[in-house]
Amino acid sequence: MDKVKEELAELAADWGDAAKRQEELGDVLFTCVNLARHAQTDAETALRYANRKFTQRFRAMEQLLSAEGLAIDSASNAQMEAAWQKIKKQPSG
Fold first, then answer.
1. Which of 1, 10, 60, 93 has its CA 20 to 30 A from that of 17?
2. What pLDDT score was predicted for residue 50?
3. How confident is the prediction for the chain on average, in pLDDT?
């Protein structure tokens, strides 16, 4: 985890340079995959799970906003964030 923090710091330091940002982001991703290996976790499976969880939360956020009379494309960032946080607090969120 220390290596992930180190790589994230390098990414933050080079954020303003597009080429360096891409390189450093690649290093972050590579380091996260290596962390998964050390955790005896399949990185691809973990990413699929995270994608599935995000999709479920996003759909739930859309439904919550719709119930409040808002379409996702007309909701403000603050409204979407509030809905997102509400969804995350739910047991299945």
1. 1
2. 96
3. 95
Cα–Cα distance, 52 to 2 (Å, whole number): 27
3 and 35 in contact (C-beta within 8 Å)? Answer: yes
Residues of the chain with pLDDT under 70: 92-93
Under 8 Å between Cβ of 93 and 60: yes
| DSSP-derived secondary structure letter, 85 | H
Per DSSP (E only), the strands in the chain are none
Cα 14 from Cα 69, distance rounded (Å): 42
Q: How many other C-beta atoms can be found within 10 angstroms of the C-beta atom of residue 61?
A: 23
Are 54 and 34 contacting, i.e. CB atoms less than 8 angstroms apart?
Answer: no
Task: Give the global pTM.
Answer: 0.78
Task: Say how many C-beta atoms besides its own lie within 10 A of residue 30's C-beta.
Answer: 12
